[in-house]
Amino acid sequence: MHIGDIKLIFPAIYMSAAAIVVLILGVIAARRPGKGLDHWLPSHYLAPVLVFSGLFFSAAALIQSFAGMGLSIEVPIGSEMTRAPAVALFVTSGGHAQLTVDPFAAIFTFIAFAGTLIVMLISLDHFGERQPHKAEYYSILMFATAAVSFAASATDLIAIYLSIEFLSLTSYVLAAFAKTDRRSGEAGLKYFLYGAACSAIGLYGMSILFGVTGGSTALTAVARGLEDARATGAAWVGVVFTLVGFGFKLALVPFHFWAPDTYEGAPTPVAAFLSVVSKAAGLAVMTRFLTIVAAPDEPVSLSWYWILVVLTAVSMFYGNLVAIPQRNIKRMLAYSSIAQVGYLMIGVLTAMHSFGGPGRLLSGFFGVPSAAVRSDVANLDLVTWDMQGVLIYTLAYLFMNLGAFAVVSVVGKKNPLNPPLANAEAYKGSEIENYSGLMRRSPFYATSLTVFLISLAGVPPTAGFVGKLFIFGGAIRMGTSYPELIVLAIIGVINSVISAYYYLNVVRLMFFAPAEGKSEISASIPANTAIAICLVTTLALIVVVKPVASLMSSAIYSVVPGVIR
Amino acid sequence: MIEHAWLIPLLPVIAFGLVLLFGRKAPGNGAYVAIAAICASLAMSLAVAFQWFLGGASAAHNGLYSVTIQWMPVGSQMIDMGFSIDALSVVMLLVVTIVASLVQIYSIGYMHGDPRYPRYFAYHSLFAAAMLTLVIANNVVLMFMSWELVGLTSYLLIGFWFERPSAMRAAKKAFLVTRVGDVGFLAGIILIYLKTGSLNLFGDAGVFENLTRLDVIGPWGLPLTAIAGLLLFCGAVGKSAQFPLHVWLPDAMEGPTPVSALIHAATMVAAGVYLVARMYPVYLADSSGMALQVVAYVGAFTALFAATIGIAQNDIKRVLAYSTVSQLGYMIMSLGVFGYVAGMFHLFTHAFFKANLFLGSGSVIHGTGTQDIREMGGLKKKMPWTYWTFLISTLSLCGIPFVTAGGWSKEEILAVAWHTNRVVFVVGVLGAFTTAFYMFRLVYKTFYGEPRKHDIHAHESPRVMLVPLVILAFLAIFAGYVGTPWANVFERNLVPVLGHHYEQVLENKLAGMHHGFNLTVFLFATGSALLGIFMATIIWLKPVLRIEKLEPSFGWLAKLVENKYYIDEIYQATIIRGLMAAAWLAFAFDKWVIDYAIVNGVGYLTRLASDLWGWFDRTFVDGLVNIIGWITKTTGSALRYLQTGVAQHYIFLLVSALVVISLAVIAGHIREEAWIPIAGFYR
Amino acid sequence: MSHSAYGIPITWFLTLGAMLFCIGLFGMMVRRSAIGMLLSVELMLNAANINFIAFGSYLKLPTIAGQIFAIFVITLAAAEAAVGLAIVINIYRLEQHVDVDKMTAMKL
Amino acid sequence: MILFGFEITGYQIAFLALAGVTLGSALMVVLMPNILRAALFLGLTLFGTAGLYVLMNAPFLAAVQVMIYVGAITTMIILAIFLSSRVMSVGFSQAIYNPVLAFGAAGVMFLFLFVTIANSIWVKRIAAEGPTNSNVGVHAVAAALLQPYVFPFELASLVLLAVLVGAIVIAKEDQPGEP
């Protein structure tokens, strides 16, 4: 690599630097609260502004990586070499990149930045101006975002482990950030213990992979090594254990146990962050890992593939069924997001098939994938549709889920001047029964939440419908060769009917139940802005889906492995 | 004008936005905005219709005008969005816009003073937009989208009076039950897409074109086309309230009456019929004919089943609801016996007279303040306009020949059934009889006799409500003249919609059918309707047969049937029921043979059947829905106990899951290597 | 049995690592206090480190990556312990105990 | 050296001794009722592991292990134990939670791993008798860290910064009125 190529990961570097700036300025300012520097440059305004400009940088990086301006990599296709818009950074001996900057990473960086910005807007409203340790809070949030960005482009086990762990550690802190709140502490502790166990298991898996593949840590090298070690049970044990570490970030069943408790106890903006941005990191790593490392030519012959299929189906059913009896809306959303991960995993499995195995990786990567050869619709290109599904659904999920959490945060807000001690009263805010008659108390929030929930249920014309269309469509297309994907898609459709049951229950309460003399709900401008952004995007995605989808389809180049330039 | 047909659904969407945002500040509290939009859509639909049928546009465009724009790229393929104008969609446009605009005008009077008046009109506009999009969509994705949107807005409209818990429940039930059908619909779309590789209906590589080319037998010899047709039909079963998913429609009467008139007469429920008609090539391509058989029998069963339930209902709107279910069964049945034109024709005429009946019942409810026909009576004098329009539409529904629209369409259905399937024909005739019977019961109980409850001060409704009634009554008479057996304009225009190939197929199926006036069918149809009217007259108008006399003996049976005994303690219930039934039989036999002979017996048997159906409906069909709900809930509740809140438990579960997964990995790869650790360890 | 200066097959180390890993897992399940569970996590991380270094040393193509990975694991273990202990201390301040199995305010 | 008919090298004896120490103290970590003693036994485990590192020709790692793990982490944990208990002697009886099930799960897991690990497939890539590399010194590690692995190195420093800030914020006791 050239040292100048560092500019390609500029968004992530910028985010880390901005986090340090917020920290230092914030700590200086906090010495005289409300006066001097704190009056002119309080960190809860500084941080969103910096993230907002970071959003522009990541958008620029996105456009740059799609347009292929200045970054490209030679990839062999069959016997010819073709240029693909990806750049390998920090190449180790053997020609394997630790970071690969490509449209896939750029999209996830953008998603992380946009999500963080919305989370910050919610936080502004949720914690208020007098939030204790606000500089540290915003700075750690920004560090976590940088970690997501690193994770999205990491193509080396060391880099992946570090960035995922970076994200986890900052997330533990964020979950426990409401220090005076018992539930927040409990949420943080459970998240920490479960996360530590999962990451230790994942690390153990990586150590086995490291050995089985002959001492390689780069994903491409691991992929080649696995080809040789195909017949080894140990290799697949390594893969499965490693997947535990990623599945934990995704809250995939059965690695999900932390999610409901943590979502319920953590401050609502943090729960929003965990459910979307942190999950995006897990998704990016999972997708990259599966498509590069673990996808041999015939994944259907491998037991772990079937394990993933089963876990995907179980996730959908488990999440949706257990969400039904919940009484706390944050907990309900936690289970709902477990189910949503199931939908996303359908997309990941589809993508996995379309990218074929490690052998195909270096020869004929852009060629017709194995699925198409076997299928009777060989002339239809299967590749782009599949990667699109994951990306578009993630985008849709970002806005609809964050929107739902934003409304939950506004409705369940506590008095910011008076942070509550561990009393049960303070938590009435996020009980579902508290939403009865919300329409009469505040039509805007009720309508917005309705739109978000309907979108999560996948009813047109919302973003969730578009996402499901792409996910299920891709699965069905690929299903001509791999019927289990069609089964998963049908399970997905059935589950979206089940999910309508509990989403509509909230809608019913909001619209159709009497309000028991509760006052109107008000929120500050930032929170309303966040909700409005989510609302507009959720409703407008179907209109602008054409440019978005064609943008996403370019991400076919995404999982180009780091190969030396 | 045809090029701008996309404006027809767009105008109500704009009205929806305006009314929702500006509501009370808009003219007429938003009502005028919504009405202006739907009337503009109506005008445009009329213009399109004139241009299409009379202006020669149909010939100029070869019977199909379709515009497509690219919507979203999926892989190398584009999902398109677009609209198509052909005879079928023009008919549907006319039906929807006419009924929707009249219903909205009517609503000015009916909803007057409602606290959420603007929102009502906003929902109405959105609903109309969704429905209009559905009928001109030329792409299954767009169709499905608007289909779901129709369901969503009907949820809002049915639950409009959410102060009533029953309205809430009904709205949710309607949404969820129709969504069950939608799963089938979606699966059908998926299957069709997999088989034809296309999402567009028309055009060179469209669904219909490809259906003819592709082989239709799937793996393991599955008749894929038939399966696709049946899956699509699931959607229609849900939306058009066919057995066994009809349970939502009677409950949905909790919405405001104009909503019932719009949704449950002309639009949403007709969407299912429209879907089958639109996808008719799929059914015709199914050479086994299995799909259409199922369609026919489901329709026929529903038609008779719902009609018998209608006899025993005492809520004016519920009678009409079951009547709607029954008439939808007629349409579906007609489509099932290759009566493609007849089914659509009945949809066309039914929309007007059923909308009129609902609006008339709304007028009655508005005037009397009650929905119970036992409390009404003698309204003929007090509400003359309502009475006459209601009567005209009732006659139309009964299928009185020559002078009403319903007569023409019902006869056409029976004519087709006579030719293709005599069983269905018999069911149709029985249905016609029952329909006339319960409708005239309704008319007599409501408008004739003396007022049974004297604290009701009935008054005629305001003019803004009467004008739509009169217009619809007019249509209930004259709309049928487009499809008389002698000059069937309807058929001439509608059949070519299928395209040349399928037109041929349909003609082969109907080969040898006597096109034109069929005296046998005419006698059966008219005779059964007149007999029904006659029976109703001698029971309720001039009580030759005194039903009240048997009311005690019959009443306790009805109660018994409804009694919880049956469900809770089946053993005991069976014995009691057996005893009671024996006693009742002895008593009834005595009464019948001595007093009333056969005529009265028919009346009782029908009512008995009706109540039994009702019981069956409540117990089994609702029960099935409830059981599914219960299982879902219980599983959810049971599973949540895994989440004990103890972190050590979580980790234990994690490790156990990992152990299971690891063992599965071993099981999966056991053959690939020696798992017995000898060589490595003691090397 | 072959003879060499070392005479220790790698499987000995790997088995030791597996034992340590499972002892750690066991500790995660049976330890009651949060700090006890944290200790068990350290055992599991150590097991992974033993694997890394064993592979790094025993591979026919020697690589330093194993040791590098282990260094990062140790670094992150320190960071993890810091975060964990901070959370534990905060919990102790709120509840006067650190027994995880008593913390079940949220369930269902 | 011949022992019980087997020929045993000095390295093997060293391994067995270190493994015994490591595993024994690891068991103590898990089973010791007193949390402070458990933490001290963790230090012993980590020492034993450091010895194993030396056996595997990784003396630098052994040094790192002793300095960071034993020196820093264990000390930190002990400090936290002191901080989070008012009276040392009370409240540390660690009742075992669900020992049988847990033992079963962990035991099956171990059997599974053992079967997987002790498999002949290692022969292919792994030198049979002992480490292939000679002692890897500080220089080699430093060169690797600063040249090919400079990115993880920098990332790790970011992690440490963020985590330090987070840990301090969470752990410190807020004075009333402090922002």
Describe the fold and architecture:
- The complex is a heterotetramer of chains A (about 575), B (about 675), C (about 110) and D (about 180).
- Chain A has about 575 residues and is mainly alpha-helical.
- Chain A has one domain.
- Chain A is about 70% helix and about 5% strand.
- Helices cover about 70% and strands about 5% of the residues of chain B.
- The longest helix of chain B has about 70 residues.
- Chain C contains three helices and no strands.
- The mean pLDDT of chain C is about 85.
- Chain D is mainly alpha-helical.
- Chain D is about 65% helix and about 0% strand.
- In chain D, helix 1 packs antiparallel against helix 2 and helix 2 runs antiparallel to helix 3.
- About 5% of the residues of chain D have low confidence.
- At the A-B interface, helix 7, helix 9, helix 10, helix 12 and helix 16 of A face strand 1, helix 6, helix 7, helix 27 and helix 28 of B.
What secondary-structure arrangement, pairings included, does this model have?
The complex is a heterotetramer of chains A (about 575), B (about 675), C (about 110) and D (about 180).
Chain A: H1 10-29, H2 36-40, H3 43-67, E1 73-77, E2 80-84, E3 87-92, E4 96-101, H4 103-127, H5 134-153, H6 157-175, H7 182-212, H8 219-228, H9 233-250, H10 258-265, H11 268-293, H12 303-323, H13 329-355, H14 358-362, H15 370-374, H16 383-411, H17 438-441, H18 443-457, H19 463-478, H20 483-512, H21 525-540, H22 545-553
Antiparallel strand pairs in A: 1-2, 3-4
Helix pairs in contact in A: 1-3, 1-5, 3-4, 3-5, 4-5, 4-11, 4-16, 4-21, 5-6, 5-11, 6-7, 6-11, 7-9, 7-10, 9-11, 10-11, 10-13, 11-13, 11-16, 12-13, 12-20, 13-16, 13-19, 13-20, 16-18, 16-19, 16-21, 16-22, 18-20, 18-21, 19-20
Chain B: H1 7-22, H2 31-54, H3 57-60, E1 65-74, E2 77-85, H4 87-110, H5 117-136, H6 140-158, H7 165-196, H8 207-213, H9 224-239, H10 248-251, H11 257-266, H12 268-278, H13 280-285, H14 290-311, H15 316-336, H16 340-368, H17 379-382, H18 384-398, H19 405-420, H20 422-447, H21 463-478, H22 489-494, H23 500-509, H24 519-541, H25 547-562, H26 565-568, H27 570-639, H28 647-669
Antiparallel strand pairs in B: 1-2
Chain D: E1 2-3, E2 6-7, H1 10-31, H2 35-55, H3 59-83, H4 99-117, H5 138-146, H6 150-171
Antiparallel strand pairs in D: 1-2
The end-to-end span of chain A amounts to: 7 Å
Helical segment tally of chain A? 22
The greatest inter-chain interface is formed by: C-D, 77 and 90 residues
The SSE order of chain B reads HHHEEHHHHHHHHHHHHHHHHHHHHHHHHH
Strand content of chain A: under 5%
Task: Please tally the β strands of chain B and state the result.
Answer: 2
Radius of gyration of chain B: 28 Å
Strand order of the largest sheet of chain A: 1-2
Which structural class fits the helix and strand makeup of chain B?
Answer: mainly alpha
Mean pLDDT of chain A: 79
Inertia-based shape of chain B:
globular
Would you tell me the overall average pLDDT of chain B?
76
Biggest sheet of chain B, open or closed, and with what strands and sense? 2 strands, antiparallel
Total separate domains of chain A: 1
H/E topology pattern of chain A = HHHEEEEHHHHHHHHHHHHHHHHHHH
Specify the overall morphology of chain A.
Answer: globular
